[in-house]
Amino acid sequence: MQEPITQEPITLDKILSGIGNIKSNFGKIKEYLDDKLKEYGPVIAGYALSLSPYTRASYSIGSYLEGKIGGRRGIATKYVSILVGVAATAIAIGFALFGIHGLPSHNEHIQYLGSQNGYEGFVPQNTINYNGHTDPTGDLILNNGTTIHNTIWNGQYSNTINNNHNQIIQLNNQFVGQTDPVNNQQYVKNIQDFYVIKGPVPIEQVIINGQTYYVIEANKINPADIAGFYTYDKWVSNFVAAMNTPETYTASVPGNSPVFQWTNTTGTLVYQTQLYGHYGPFAGRYVLVLPNGTIIPYGATGNIAGASLSNFYSTNQIYNSSS
């Protein structure tokens, strides 16, 4: 027969002992938070500074009550007050960190960057040998405009991204110096491919030959949430920002549109994105239309086309240049 469970009476000594344990564990928590603040300091420093009055106020109140009440009860009251302030700060910092860690992770080395409902863009520039595999490396543009350099794409689509990027470079070299037959302007020199992820991006920080890299663990991303695009390299960050701008919409430019005759980068790019579609798994002549009427011409990759981003590469909306 199982013995009945007896509960010892709770005394002030046990409360103070518990507080001592909390203080000890809080030191460990502080070390952990210090490491995280070093890693994400630029992002959350503003939050930490704005939230610190909670702790300062609770410490002041606790010290006052300690002197007023006196003895062990005063000490206990002081620590309870401090812990309330620490808890308030921790909760508030938790909300701040939520923008960085959009989803929980079962691997303590992987953090999720970006927004649950936002779009983040990976821009390949080169390749690197990572764990015996040739992976694309470049920049990651977050939905808030933050750019993380030295990013590696590891996992699904890494080979496809490498192939697409090489094809884009070859086409850039093939058409450099040639002229758009419609507006008689030279083609844009640097078309850039990039890969958009809908939702937070799983990132692991690693050191390779003394250099810090941020590895996108692509196998942890739903394939439906990844799609490839290409546009003028100087407009990629604007493209990601536009995707994250409410009321931005996608449209296709009809073949008889006067946009093709515009003697600027926009007019040339509309034709050029369509031209590249004749030489690879690409389809052009799309534009993002911002609420202020600005348009960004682009193309999409047919071999990386997640369904949740289909509104950016499959649209019945026709762009009217007079609108």
List the helices and strands and how they pair.
Layout: H1 12-69, H2 71-98, E1 110-113, E2 119-130, E3 133-141, E4 147-154, H3 158-175, E5 191-198, E6 201-208, E7 211-217, E8 226-232, H4 236-243, E9 249-252, H5 265-276, E10 282-289, E11 295-305
Parallel strand pairs: 4-7
Antiparallel strand pairs: 1-6, 2-3, 2-5, 3-4, 5-8, 6-7, 8-11, 9-10, 10-11
What does this structure look like?
This protein has helices spanning about 10-70, 70-100, 160-175, 235-245, 265-275; strands spanning about 110-115, 120-130, 135-140, 145-155, 190-200, 200-210, 210-215, 225-230, 250, 280-290, 295-305. It is α+β, with helices and mostly antiparallel strands. It folds into two domains: about 10-100, no CATH class; about 110-310, no CATH class. An eleven-stranded mixed sheet has the order 1-6-7-4-3-2-5-8-11-10-9. β6 and β7 form a beta hairpin. Residues about 1-15, about 35-55 and about 90-105 have low confidence and may be disordered.
